[in-house]
Amino acid sequence: MWIAIAALNLAVAVLLGAFGAHGLKAHATDVQLSWWHTATDYFFYHALGLFALAILAKIIPLLPIKTSFILMQLGILFFCGSLYLMALGLPRILGAITPIGGAFMIAAWLLLAWNALKYAK
């Protein structure tokens, strides 16, 4: 199931990237396009991270990755989602949500590192 979720995230990242490059370009400001670009970059990085976690779960079933996976998915939703919404013209106050998503992403990677160190022992 986790590989499917990661693959769906990657497909959505491609769709949103294409929309930003082709559909949004004529209607958005440079700042809005910058937000869109940043959101798409981080979406791809972390969707690939989800894919890596899903593969790790198959290769090393004893490595606990579920919480990292959930935190990373939440990070995508909060970080990228808030930037996408602002790029579409919604209020900039949504930018207050962006760091929460970033914190989820950081926590996901740190938790993975912690669990990997514990597993290695």
Automatic annotation (TrEMBL):
It is a multi-pass membrane protein. Keywords: Membrane, Transmembrane, Transmembrane helix. The keyword Transmembrane helix applies. The chain crosses the membrane at residues 44-63, 70-90, 96-117. InterPro entries: DUF423. It is found in: Membrane. It comes from the Bacteria. Belongs to the UPF0382 family. This is DUF423 domain-containing protein. It comes from Acinetobacter albensis.
